Amino acid sequence: MLPSQPLLHAAVFALAVLQALASDTFTAAVYEHAVILPDVPDKPVSPDDALALMNKNMDVLEGAIKEAAQQGARIIVTPEDGIYGWRFTREAIYPYLEDIPDPAVNWIPCTDPARFAPVPVQERLSCMARNNSIYVVANIGDKKPCNSSDPSCPSDGRYQYNTDVVFDPEGKLVARYHKYNLFRRETQFDYPKKPEAVTFETPFGKFGIFTCFDILFREPAVVLVSELQVDTVLFPTAWMNVLPFLTAVEFHSAWAMGMGVNLLSANTHNISMEMTGSGLFTPEGPAAYHYDSGTEEGHLLLAELSAHPRLSPTYP
């Protein structure tokens, strides 16, 4: 008799964990995504139209996730703004947002979407992770209601956050990070009341996560490395290669070398806005990188990395 699907999935997941535990390295992936943008981002649309656009982008991301998993990747990072784009007003982005719970709730959206419904984006991302037995890192939007008893509550009665989520190979939500250092154009989002230092453990090292502009500040970037001692940083970004900043590849590679950690940097791809440059960076230099200012195509990168770079005999 053939084993049931849940038992088969559990067996595959357990085998993958044992394989990861037996190795000091792991294969990681990042995907530079040419985001499909809304026609008029500053005009509100219906929830159905918002979801239709997000599904188009998730169709592309799902293909990249499946390919990465087939090539042995244990984790994949996708870009900031990779599911709905940018240049929204506060009102226009609202139909794209979901209420993202604290990971402490121990929740697998793929198998229990009704628990915090409606969450079609989280459900689909969770299923991508579960169906491919891979950690999936994505950037979406979180909404949280508030009221007049909170002096910081916006006039529309809600907080809106630029948010990273991580789903493990079972599809469980294991990390949620609200971007603290917003770029000057991100007026559609609110600042969290205090910076968050988000970490999670895997069979192949300790991971931290933050978003794009955060990398230029002590909190959370330096805190994760110097105080919380993460091995690898997950970095969804929408990095424009314009002054006063260096190009994405140069800056992010130098940051990983200076901090002594792996940096998995997934950039959006839009050549009209000078957005390109992704890579898997290590304390010893780039393991793989991609920079393309000539085409409009996305690109998948994979590399084998040290799970604990500080323990390497060649650690800088």
UniProtKB/TrEMBL annotation:
A GO biological process held by the record: pantothenate metabolic process
GO molecular function: pantetheine hydrolase activity
Pfam families: CN_hydrolase (PF00795)
CDD domains from the UniProt entry: biotinidase_like
Membrane spanning residue stretches: none
UniProt keyword terms in alphabetical order: Glycoprotein, Hydrolase, Signal
Superkingdom, taxonomy of origin: Eukaryota
Signal peptide limits: 1-22
Domain CN hydrolase: 31-307
Entry's family note: Belongs to the carbon-nitrogen hydrolase superfamily. BTD/VNN family.
Name of the protein: Vascular non-inflammatory molecule 3
Record organism: Tauraco erythrolophus
